[in-house]
Amino acid sequence: MSTPAFPFSLSRVTSEFGRRWLSLNGGFWNNHEGMDFGVGLGTPVPLAADGKLSASGRSHPLWGNWLEYDHGPFKTRYHGVTPASVPSAPRSAPKGAIIAHTSQPGASTGPHLHFELVVGGRKVNPRNLTKYRGTYKHVTGSAAGAAASRVVVDGLWGKQTITAVQKVLARTLAVKVDGAWGSQSIKALQKSLGVAQDGRFGPQTIRAWQKRLRVTVDGKWGKQSVTALQKRINAANRIYA
Hints:
Residues 31-126 form the M23ase beta-sheet core domain. The protein is of the alpha+beta class and 241 residues long.
């Protein structure tokens, strides 16, 4: 069991849990049942802890499009995601996995993520998130139906490493596992990284991947980056930290 994490830095909080005054429609008092993070449109949303998708909805007049994940003793809800995020949300995902991208909730003055914490069927202050420990364990390996094989750590970007990357991506996205690094695989990677999905393995995508691998960020896919990736696959069956 690991400590859950907030989707964004607490320095980005624009509205806290509790009673507040809203200026919409002439102004009124409202019981705010979550925490708002001020982030731009299309910002990738990471999962707070290992979890499975338990509910979702679209076009709510107040919440917009939303997702709910079950972590065992608690659930987290993510309101204000793009319409496309609802059908494409992974059914099971590890902590930190990108589950959606931000949009603008229905009744709001600007784009943000409305984040809720639910314990025992009751919404509680999300500030208490790190007091809980999730008991749900995201399944990897053969039990997930798409195990990444151990790879030789040689720094070479070839079929064995590409196949392992495709197997990891195929857990939650539609990817053909064939060892060929084509536009379908690249778009899946781009989606998981939260960058533009143009199917081109260029500097923007490489830099985003290098940041997640915690290696030198130079936009060039070379031996250092591939070696870090191969070690990550072997150590955790994942393609970035």
